[in-house]
Amino acid sequence: MYIVQSIIQVPEHKTEQLIDIYRNRSRLVDEQPGFVSFQLLQSENTPAEFVVQTTWQTKSDYIAWVKGTDFQRIHELERQYPDQELSDIKPTVKRYVVRAE
């Protein structure tokens, strides 16, 4: 398994808006070969910090998603989001290989 986390810090007054965006996400990633799961995590200690986490069968599955047109289309829409405070956020991305379950 392969896990990708995008860590996002949003302005505190934007937390509910961000949650709504992900609750209403396109779900295109869900249909990708090797996709396992998606979670939006919110920090208990720092409520304006979120982690967008996807789990994949393999790193190759994730790379194929990133190189695909659906990924490009989703991220282009994010850059055009009318709320500048949210569209300007640059996540910190971390990638992990699952070594034991």
From TrEMBL:
Residue ranges constituting the ABM domain according to the UniProt record: 2-93
Keywords: Monooxygenase, Oxidoreductase
Family matches, as SUPFAM superfamilies: Dimeric alpha+beta barrel
GO molecular function, a single term: monooxygenase activity
Top-level taxon: Bacteria
Pfam families: ABM
PROSITE patterns: ABM
Gene3D superfamilies the record matches: 3.30.70.100
InterPro entries the UniProt entry points to: ABM_dom, Dimeric_a/b-barrel, Heme-degrading_MO
PANTHER family with a match to the protein in the record: SIGNAL TRANSDUCTION PROTEIN TRAP (PTHR34474)
Annotated protein name in UniProt: Heme-degrading monooxygenase HmoA
Species for this entry: Paenibacillus hunanensis
